[in-house]
Specification:
The chain is an alpha+beta fold. It has one domain. The protein contains six helices and 13 strands. A hairpin with a 5-residue loop joins strand 9 and strand 10. The longest helix has 27 residues. The N terminus and C terminus are likely disordered.
């Protein structure tokens, strides 16, 4: 066992509380099934949202104890050169967009800053960039754990800003904790409507559409040094037999210099062995008109719970 892992506290209380939570969820699922069976024609949105809120609260408490592996593949539109002579047929056609692709592998976790203790952020320590290894996974985990245990927000901000240093263009951030948009205290900021059924992989799901009410904007878009708050709308995919959240998809539109800017994000969740929903993938795109500007595809794996598992080793 590594020294960093051995210093992490055991949490039998977490195991006991999660077992109690699982029993409560089984009871809630039974009530949910009966409620939905009774109101199958119109559906019971409130019953579906109860499970969503419960999982959001569990995630909020447990996420800072998790660490996993993240792989980001980004495709970003490259600026056109100021002068590039073209001849023949090429000169009469609009230039084709050129994209740059990057791949970043990181150790990944969640945490807060002292200045905003109620806001959960994603933190990363990069392992490799475009196949070039910068440090071992063990070194990355040690550094990430050290930064998260520190009371110094400066160290944490350096972790937040690291992606920009590797040349990524407008990489998506903080989409993994998207489920926290739907804690119970935030539900009043949305309108909901059951909009049908679908599938997420092999799972049958109920689809619920949502729209933020005016004044409740929760998505922050950064345009250079300017932060813009924008309203969002989208869909929730909840597993049909028990209401487990499987997918959250949202989008936002705004006008910029006479063009429509569309931001889209889809987050798929899976239940981890620790009884906590974790992101399995995030796909985020930005389009201006019909032109794709940037696409981020995140994949997640190997989540471990530090506070509940003192046996974690860094091979």
């Amino acid at each position: 066992m590594s020294r960093a892992a051995s210093q992490l506290p055991r949490s039998d209380d977490w195991r006991r509380s999660r077992r109690g939570y699982n029993l409560a969820m089984e009871a809630l699922a039974a009530v949910l099934v009966l409620s939905l069976a009774a109101g199958q024609a119109g559906g019971s949105v409130e019953a579906w949202l109860d499970r969503l809120c419960e999982e959001a609260e569990v995630f909020r408490h447990a996420a800072p104890k998790l660490i996993g592996r993240e792989t980001l593949r980004q495709r970003a539109l490259q600026p056109r050169p100021r002068f590039r002579p073209r001849i023949g047929k090429e000169a009469t056609e609009p230039p084709k967009p050129e994209y740059r692709t990057r791949e970043i592998v990181s150790e990944y976790t969640f945490g807060t800053l002292r200045e905003s203790p109620g806001v959960l952020h994603e933190f990363r320590q990069v392992v490799s960039v475009d196949g070039r290894q910068l440090r071992t996974a063990e070194q990355a985990r040690r550094k990430l754990v050290s930064g998260m245990r520190s009371a110094d927000d400066h160290l944490k901000r350096r972790l937040l800003e690291q992606f920009e240093r590797y040349g990524l263009r407008g990489a998506a951030a903080d989409f993994g904790p998207l489920i926290l948009l739907f804690t119970r205290r935030r539900l009043a900021g949305y309108s909901f409507q059951q909009s049908g059924r679908g599938r997420v992989g092999a799972e049958a799901a109920v689809v619920i559409s949502f729209r933020e009410t005016p004044g409740a904007e929760s998505l922050t878009i950064f345009e250079g040094s300017r932060a813009v708050r924008v309203p969002v709308e989208g869909h929730l995919w909840l597993r049909e037999n028990d209401g487990l959240p499987l997918r959250i998809a949202l989008e936002s539109r705004r006008q910029q210099d006479g063009a429509t800017v569309l931001d889209q994000a889809t987050v798929d969740y899976v239940m981890s062995p620790h009884g906590v929903l974790v992101p399995a993938s995030v796909v985020r795109r930005r389009l201006i008109g019909d032109l794709l500007v940037v696409e981020d595809v995140f994949q997640y794996s190997s989540f471990r719970m530090f506070a509940a598992d003192a046996e974690i080793k860094f091979p």
